[in-house]
Amino acid sequence: GGLVDTHAVIRALKSRRLGHLAIDVYEQESGLFFQDRSGEIIDDDAFQRLMTFPNVLVTGHQGFFTVEALQEISAITLGNLDDFGQGRACANRVVAA
Question: Which whole number is the average pLDDT over 46-74?
């Protein structure tokens, strides 16, 4: 489930108990982002309602897209590759549960 109750957020925005909303993740976002959907009807009433507010910003996982974040991702990835190539244990190894 999502971390945000979208319908409660909409009610709070409408009543002005919530002044602004900026989210980088939307719980029902699958298929909404990374394609031009301007000529389509979006079949998600809650998302459509959110987008009508001038004080709401919704991005499709763009929060990571900063110079600092990309530098950090690159440094960690290169470090992991170096560890693997040198036969060292990788500090960022993912282990199946």
Answer: 85
Buried b (16+ CB within 10 A) or exposed e, 53-71: beebebeeeeeeeeeeeee
Q: List, for residues 15-48, the tens digit of each pLDDT value.
A: 999 999 998 876 766 666 667 778 887 777 888 8
Instruction: State how far the Cα of 24 lies from the Cα of 47, in Å rounded to an integer.
Output: 13
Distance between CA 16 and CA 70 in Å, rounded? 36
Break the chain into its structural domains and give their ranges: 1-63, 64-97
Identify the pLDDT of residue 79: 94
C-alpha distances in angstroms, 10 versus 3, 51, 55, 63, 94? 14, 10, 11, 22, 38
